[in-house]
Amino acid sequence: MPAIPQTFLDEAYARALTGTEYELRATPQARNSVSGNGRPACCGNASCIPICPIGAKYDATVHLSLAERNGALVHPQTTAMRVEVGTEGRVTAIRFKRWDGSEGVASGKVFVHAAHAIETPRLLLHSRSEALPNGVANRSGQVGRNLMDHPTQLSWALSREPVWPYRGPLSTSSIETFRHGASRKDRPAMRIEIGNDGWSWPKGAPVSTAAELARQGLRGSELNAALRDQAARHARLASQVEQLPDPNNRVTLDSNERDMYGVPLPRLAYRPDDYVRAGLAAARAAHAEIFERLNGDRAPQRAGRRRPHHGHGAHGQRSQKLGGRPRPSQPRSRQPLHPRLGCVPHRRHGQSHADHRRAQPTFGRVGQSGIVAVIRTLFGARR
Ligand SMILES: Cc1cc2nc3c(=O)[nH]c(=O)nc-3n(C[C@H](O)[C@H](O)[C@H](O)COP(=O)(O)OP(=O)(O)OC[C@H]3O[C@@H](n4cnc5c(N)ncnc54)[C@H](O)[C@@H]3O)c2cc1C
Ligand code: SF4
Known about the structure:
binds flavin-adenine dinucleotide, Cholesterol Oxidase, domain 2, alpha+beta
């Protein structure tokens, strides 16, 4: 499949950054550039989050539909509440509740827990019993710990010349020069994402820009011209930095609050350390320099920064210790990957598995959802 084309805006940055250490590259995309397998080609109007409305961008529904076509039964509006473990230490069933309040029990040979970085540990911790007082798969005390994301520094500026954002997928190019090198001993690896989405992430533009101009008294064609002028010059950069595991960044259970099914709500403790903060500071400095170059070495007319954004668990990962010995330890770089499912087995509960992404040793600069989907598909195909 041909690559998704880089945008006019990417080319403007590439010209401005030629000969510098900021080397612009096309970003690989899990979205169709041509129609195929019943999914259309991307039509490029930059509304890819939360999901692509026409299905050009990959999401889990692609494989969910395939699984259903091959006989999988999906139970919508059904919430797992408790993992049952038998006397031999093997998972025997999952207790669940439906939206209408009715209850049921799912039994099987293999159980995969893939409720993401917060809900999976919540379920395992809540499933404690007399035999397993710390919860399921938690003799190590590591379930819920080492919660990670890729902290993000967001910056935006008004460029001098039009760069014509709000066209194409949200991002088609990035600067990957800072992923490697000796500086990683002082600050994390990072990547700089070039945004095609103008100021929509930091400011809710272009709607918020139109509202602001209207507040200033502009109306009709005057408002239209001012909006066009500004929106054409909205530039946005976001740098995502690597985060290392910290056992104090963790998911626990709330001792008072429960959800509608009576399961304790999760409590989150999350604090980026000095290493991450050094990465965000380096990102701010890089953004300022890039914006200046985009404006011919003149400071951009208006620039903004937003306090670092931590993804709100959207990209969360690690939060479980799996596969290895039960004693407390840091996450290991070589967790055994289940050869068939692309999952990591809970050693003590043999046939019970956690989604592989939750067991990666550190968090890279970007989400790896597409890669995990590919791993699962490849291993699934070999069964
Ligand atoms: C705004 C945004 C942008 C993102 N951008 C990117 C990106 O560019 N690249 C990238 O790689 N990743 C990105 N991500 C992250 C990516 O979407 C997630 O990492 C990925 O979806 C995780 O997949 P998962 O299957 O582990 O968990 P999820 O997709 O969260 O699926 C977990 C499922 O479990 C269900 N569930 C939870 N608890 C229970 C329970 N008790 N019983 C039954 N079901 C339960 C949930 O309803 C959900 O359907 C982004 C996320 C967000 C929010
Ligand atoms: S730009 Fe995004 S939302 Fe629009 S078609 Fe392409 S992938 Fe889908």
